[in-house]
Inverse folding.
């Protein structure tokens, strides 16, 4: 390697590691949302209320991870990058817990929310019943619409969220080391 090439080669430091981890989190979250929308809009699998709640962490992760990646790449203060990565880790871990809860509801290990897994109690008047049944589509949280290798989408959400949390922790660990 020539002296010029050695001088121009970028150095891998904590900020670069944090930026790389944040960029990976943004990409994973964006691809996960694209997959969810594909299943919904192309394949016609309508999400239940818990499925929709699990998307919130991804809606947060995409823009926040992009901001963290750009800030880390531009030399922002470590405390700012650390706070952003920590927020991403906490959101991903919270989402993993929610996905685990949802998977447990699907496996009938515990009762889910009554608005999507309880019994239907009020359908209105008898004369209005048929028109209401035609217009209302209840997607139950305790019924799996799709499985692959034994896991439902809630189960895959747990794995993806844990992966995102692990990447965030790797970025935090890199920042914690002295440069």
């Amino acid at each position: 390697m020539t002296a010029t090439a050695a001088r121009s080669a970028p150095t891998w430091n904590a900020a670069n590691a944090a930026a790389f981890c944040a960029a990976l989190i943004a990409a994973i979250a964006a691809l996960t949302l694209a997959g969810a929308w594909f299943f919904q809009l192309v394949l016609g699998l309508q999400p239940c209320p818990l499925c929709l709640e699990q998307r919130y962490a991804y809606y947060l992760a995409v823009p926040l991870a992009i901001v963290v990646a750009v800030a880390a790449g531009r030399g922002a203060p470590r405390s700012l990058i650390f706070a952003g990565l920590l927020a991403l880790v906490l959101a991903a871990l919270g989402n993993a817990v929610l996905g685990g809860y949802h998977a447990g509801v699907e496996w009938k290990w515990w009762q889910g929310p009554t608005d999507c897994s309880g019994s239907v109690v009020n359908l209105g008047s008898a004369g209005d019943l048929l028109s209401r049944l035609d217009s209302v589509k209840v997607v139950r949280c305790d019924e799996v619409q799709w499985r692959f290798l034994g896991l439902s989408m809630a189960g895959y959400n747990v794995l993806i969220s844990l992966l995102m949390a692990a990447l965030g922790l790797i970025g935090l660990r890199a920042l914690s080391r002295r440069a």
